[in-house]
Amino acid sequence: ARYLELVHRIDRETSGCLIIAKKRSALRFLQEEMRNRKVHKVYNALVSGRWPRGKRKIDLPLLASEQKTGEKIVQVNPKGRKSVTIFSVIKRFHNSTLLEAILETGRTHQIRVHAQHAGCPLAGDTKYGVDLINKEARKVGLKRMFLHALKIQFLLPCGKKILVEAPIPPELSNY
User: Fold this and answer.
1) Counting CB atoms within 10 angstroms of each CB, which of 42, 48, 52, 128 has the fewest?
2) Quick check: 150 pLDDT over 70?
3) Other CB atoms closer than 10 Å to residue 42's CB: what's the count?
4) What was the pLDDT predicted at 171?
5) How far is CA 133 from the centre of its chain?
6) pLDDT at 174 over 80
7) Which pairing describes strands 40-48 and 15-16: parallel, antiparallel, or unpaired?
8) Is 129 helix (H, G, I), strand (E, B) or coil?
């Protein structure tokens, strides 16, 4: 294809599904669908600790700011933009929890910051996680942040429904 453009982004260490447009008109259409929250995205995340029982919906505004080093950092802040993540427990382990995360909004680092705010940062997350926990995770084979874009569902401009799924990669499924 002569024209390829990312419709949305995911964090560098996140694996899984991405939408790439092959036409400018499709790019504009799909970006508008995302703004109107008509694109359904599902992630898997392994978080440190035991996810709080009953904690399902996190509806907290997020504010992005830039550090003196130029690094972007996101925090829960009442001055931030509306951000909603729906979490469901898939499996509980001794010191961690495998979650499904569904984005109702798509803010930078949204899953990572909402999980951290709930007291359960993502395993392997060097920005919002806990160094000691990440060190222990590396010892047992986790070499990156455990966040995977599992499914994405959207409509094409012609009205056709598309569902794309990406299985968990071996470096995460073996963890």
Assistant:
1) 52
2) yes
3) 19
4) 84
5) 20
6) no
7) unpaired
8) coil
Extract the tokens encoding 50: 């035991």
CB 153 within 8 A of CB 40: yes
pLDDT at residue 175 tops 90: no
pTM of the model: 0.91
Distance CA(161)–CA(8), nearest Å, equals: 18
Q: Report the alpha-carbon distance of residue 56 to residue 51 in Å, rounded.
A: 10
Give the separation between CA 46 and CA 124, rounded to whole angstroms.
9
Cα–Cα distances in angstroms (integers) from residue 76 to residues 8, 40, 79, in the given order:
22, 23, 9
**Residue 72: φ, ψ to 5°:** -85, 135
- Per-residue tokens: 170: 């071996």
Please give the positions annotated as active site: 11
Alpha-helical (H) ranges within the chain are 24-35, 110-117, 131-139, 170-173
Q: CA–CA separation, 165 vs 17, rounded Å?
A: 7
Q: Which residues contact residue 11 at a Cβ distance below 8 angstroms, ignoring those fewer than 6 apart?
A: 109, 112, 145, 147
